[in-house]
Amino acid sequence: MEILWKFLSSFPYAEQYPNIVDFRISRQIRDEESPAEVIVAAIAAAENQNPTSLPPIYDAVAADALNRLLVNGREDVEVSFTYYRYHVSASPTEVVLNPIE
Q1: CA proximity to 27, closest of 101, 73, 91, 100
Q2: How far apart, in whole angstroms, are the C-alpha atoms of residue 72 and residue 89?
């Protein structure tokens, strides 16, 4: 367990993403953020890359539709898709990333 904690605490943005559990990343969506931006930023942080170095998210999902659905949709909506080596589950309040093994 100590080795796992050392690995997770060495994650480049561990303070910004404190909910890393067994390689699963959970990130709350703030009111001023778009869900698509949160997804790209969280994956970039997990991969220690610049967000602009990732493929465009619209290659995986219609980002405008995703944002409209999650920002203006019902609370019980959840969208799941695969983007850049991660299974992404997004709701109006949270994004959860699970690496594809």
Answers
A1: 91
A2: 17
Question: DSSP string covering 16-33, please?
Answer: T-TT-BTTBEEEEPPTTS
As a whole number of angstroms, the distance between CA 10 and CA 75 comes to: 34
Within 8 A by CB and 6+ apart from 8, the residues are 14, 20
**Could you tell me the residue ranges of all domains in the chain?**
2-99
User: Distances in Å between the alpha carbon of 97 and those of 2, 81, 88, 89?
Assistant: 23, 10, 5, 7
Could you tell me the pTM of the whole model?
0.73
Q: pLDDT tens track of the chain, all 101 residues?
A: 333 343 444 445 445 555 444 457 787 788 788 999 999 998 998 888 999 999 999 999 999 999 999 988 678 899 999 999 999 999 998 899 998 87
Tokens of 36: 């698509």
